[in-house]
Write a structure and sequence with these properties.
With 93 residues, the chain is mainly beta. Helices cover 9% and strands 31% of the residues. The two termini are 23 Å apart.
Length: 93
């Protein structure tokens, strides 16, 4: 679990306004003590862990290509739409 000092941005468990999140943009925050990255792709909103599972890099400094956020310093990518759908539903309902 991330230390409290490592958690930045809004607490998604409390809810956020999605109106200001433009298509193709990302917002780093946290929920239940874990860093989370929320992104908008077209009309969809997606949430994944905010840290690259391979190298630990902050994904918020990466880029979005189609429905994928790419780690800023590596070639591995994390797909938004696959195994993370359950996290998206829990966070954004």
């Amino acid at each position: 679990m991330a230390a409290k000092k490592d958690l930045t941005g809004p607490d998604f468990a409390r809810g956020i306004s999605l109106g200001g999140l433009a298509d193709g943009s990302m917002l780093q925050g946290h929920a239940k003590g874990k860093p989370i990255l929320v992104a908008r792709c077209g009309d969809g909103y997606f949430a994944i862990g905010a840290t690259c599972t391979h190298y630990g890099a902050p994904l918020a400094t990466g880029i979005i290509v189609d429905d994928t956020v790419r780690c800023p310093g590596t070639t591995p990518a994390s797909a938004f739409a696959r195994e993370r759908r359950c996290a998206r539903r829990r966070l954004l309902r």
